[in-house]
Specification:
mainly alpha, MDM2, two-stranded antiparallel sheet, globular
Amino acid sequence: MCEQYRAKIEAILKDADLATVSAKSIRRSLEAQTGTSLDPIKKEINAFIGEIFVKFQEQQEKSSSPPAKSRAQDNNAKTVKKTTSPAIKKPAPKKKKEVKEKRVIDWPLLKVSPPLSDIIKTDLCSRPQAVKKMWEYIREYNLQSETDKRVLKCDAKLKELCDGEDEVSAFSINKYTQKCFTNIPKEEQPKYKQMLLEREAQDPSNNSPHK
């Protein structure tokens, strides 16, 4: 019953702010698109949305940080090809149609306060990057339930963030992060972005997926 909505849910997630999106907002978008009330299957559709959300987060993390080994192997392969290919002019191969990635939006930076800053290891970050770093922390420390990936088991840091809760859902954790963000005025954004660039230049490891 829910499977028919998979493509639409994935499309909604691609255009959503993952820091604020919720099962309810996605369900309402589905209802608006289909002109159908999903209240009769509210419980089932919410669970289905949660499953897709968790998988989407995993795909986002993998696609944003391709393995260095693969890139090195690819470069080596190109070098070998250049040195061993005969000097015969071959017709240029047809360019494969590149898969267009969603354009990276220049998200405004926010000040991040504890306990979230302790989790994502920075006090300056855009909202989408904060979500990405938090999920990297969750996976690094295996905080997803083994029986249900939509459930997060809080360690000491997450428990502090989530007001003492032992478990939270993959969606509900977003609401706990909001209290840790402070907006930076538009006119001050360039200064803080430059500050962040200088930090990254001094310590490139800060750009590592696990930092």
